[in-house]
Specification:
By secondary structure, this protein is mainly beta. Helices cover 6% and strands 61% of the residues.
Length: 337
């Protein structure tokens, strides 16, 4: 069982509850099934005005969208399930895939699918390629993107390489294609992403280094955050400290500087901070609990507010009745920082 609750200063909230089970089939093959229930909310009109308040938006297509959102109190529930498979024929290759359907109480159903192939030639090197299709709300974090039915198709490639005994480099690049809104509220859009990280092992428990993240959209969309350029670079750290043989403390964090350029608002310089403290408790060899909280702070939200904050509460309980399976892929990635 896992539960993840995300919320931000734009009034958006998302809670995902996931129940899953799997069976090892032998030969490195694991089959699993899962059920999920999502609760999504944001009582905001297009443009950011609260429901019931006056709005500067005059486009009839967007005002109609705002009316639909506010008539439902900005709340949508979703539930569904699917299947997951992982194949690890040898230590060098891991393939994972999942297929699911979600039905939203707006009356629309969506197919969610993802696949990832990892190649690990040894000496800590990892080459990964992944593709995914999911509803855009899990990346855009606005209720308007759900009501318009935007779907995202994603492709990402990454590579990790140790350099000597202490240095480690990681680089990733990808592209996302978002569909046109069902009612013409937004046009099809393309997002390009690039990330890189170089860190150094200070001791057995601490790594620290430098990161850079760059992204941008091909056009402006009124229903979600779509900057023409969003680049951040800075300092990153990773702490994994065993308190006891069963209990570990984890602390991840970033401090970054950069710039956001938007199609509708002048460019702004940004200072961003991200912090993730967590506990990992292994009650026994076949039972584990992970609990953590993510906090992020930056600038220029979906609605153009000068400060943007996010929070995410994560809980995961796992029990093993046989051979331990590979860690499942994240069902949703989303821009939670």
């Amino acid at each position: 069982y896992s539960q993840r609750a995300f919320f931000d200063s734009d009034g958006f909230g998302r809670s995902t509850n996931l129940f899953e089970g799997g069976v090892p089939m032998g030969g490195g093959v694991h089959l699993g099934a899962f059920y999920r229930y999502d609760y999504l909310s944001q009582q905001r009109q297009v443009g950011g005005a609260a429901c019931g308040a006056s709005s500067a938006i005059t486009d009839p297509v967007l005002t109609n969208l705002s009316r639909r959102i506010c008539d439902s109190d900005g709340i949508v529930r979703a539930q569904g399930g699917g299947l997951r498979v992982s194949v690890e024929p040898n230590p060098s290759v891991l393939f994972q895939a999942e297929l699911a359907t979600l039905r939203f109480d707006t009356g629309r159903s969506g197919v969610q699918a993802s696949a990832e192939l990892q190649y690990r030639p040894g000496q800590g090197r990892v080459l990964s390629f992944s593709v995914a299709r999911r509803d855009g709300i899990y990346d855009m974090n606005t209720i308007a993107s759900l009501f318009t039915g935007v779907i995202g198709d994603h492709a990402l490639i990454s590579y990790e390489q140790p350099i000597g005994d202490r240095w480690r480099a990681w680089v990733a690049g990808g592209v996302s294609r978002y569909s046109r809104g069902l009612g013409g509220e937004s046009l099809a859009n393309t997002q390009r992403r690039f990330s890189a990280r170089m860190d150094y092992k200070l001791n057995e428990h601490i790594r620290a280094g430098y990161f850079v993240r760059v992204t941008g959209f091909s056009r402006f969309a009124a229903t979600y955050f779509s900057p023409s350029f969003y680049g951040v670079y800075g300092f990153t750290y990773d702490v994994n400290y065993p308190i006891t043989p069963e209990l570990s403390f984890i602390l991840l964090g970033d401090l970054g500087w950069g710039q956001i350029s938007r199609y509708d608002i002048p460019a702004v310089n940004v200072f961003e901070a991200f912090l993730y403290p967590a506990l990992r408790w292994r009650f026994r060899s076949d039972l584990a609990l992970d609990f953590g909280y993510r906090y992020g702070r930056g600038r220029s939200s979906s609605f153009g507010s000068p400060t943007y904050t996010t929070g995410a509460l994560e809980l995961r309980l796992q029990s093993y009745f046989g051979e331990r399976r590979p860690s499942p892929m994240a069902y949703q990635s989303g821009s939670d920082q």
